[in-house]
Amino acid sequence: TVLLESKDHSAFLEAVGLKESGNNYDIVNTYGYLGKYQFGYSTLKGLGYRLSREEFLNSPYIQEAAMQKLLEHNRKKLTKYIDRHSNTTFNGVFITESGVLAAAHLAGAGNVRKWFRNGKDTQDGYGTSMTYYMSKFQGYNLDLTQE
């Protein structure tokens, strides 16, 4: 039997979670980022979450809801770039919606916009670049509400 890789929304979440935390909901990294998707407090606050570290770490449901909310928020902020550049190569990177949104998860939508404007790549504290995420997580079909 040949196992074909499913590139749907849940496969995207699984792949990002694996890279971020080994899909571990109750992990905190050395920089204080929390959970399966390694959220920072400021991001959670910006998404409207007001809860303790323990409440967040102990709730896979809240973590999944926060990730969905962040993807939809970043999609709205980056629509212009996604629509203009999807399925093209830009600054040496093949552009897809899922790749752009993974990069925004790593580095923030503002840094993704800057990259589209001036080509400046950015890295997290561990040296993982935004364009690495753009390439690694490209081509998934995401299930996002369009506003």
Condensed summary:
The protein has helices at residues 9-21, 41-46, 53-57, 60-85, 97-107, 109-118, 130-136, and strands spanning 89-90, 93-94.
Keywords:
single chain; 147 residues; mainly alpha; two-stranded antiparallel sheet; 2 strands
Task: Explain this structure.
The chain has helices at residues 9-21, 41-46, 53-57, 60-85, 97-107, 109-118, 130-136; strands at 89-90, 93-94. With 147 residues, the protein is mainly alpha-helical.
- Described by the principal axes of the CA atoms, the overall outline is globular
* Helical content class: 40-55%
Query: How many beta-strand runs?
Result: 2
Oligomer type: single chain
Report Rg: 15 Å
Number of helices: 7
> What are the low-pLDDT stretches, counting only 5+ consecutive residues below 50?
none
Q: How would you characterize the largest beta sheet?
A: 2 strands, antiparallel
Strand order of the largest sheet: 1-2
Distance between the termini: 41 Å
Q: How would you spell out the order of helices and strands?
A: HHHHEEHHH
Mean pLDDT: 95
Structural class: mainly alpha
Task: Give the amount of beta strand, in percent.
Answer: under 5%
Task: Give the helix/strand layout.
Elements: H1 9-21, H2 41-46, H3 53-57, H4 60-85, E1 89-90, E2 93-94, H5 97-107, H6 109-118, H7 130-136
Antiparallel strand pairs: 1-2
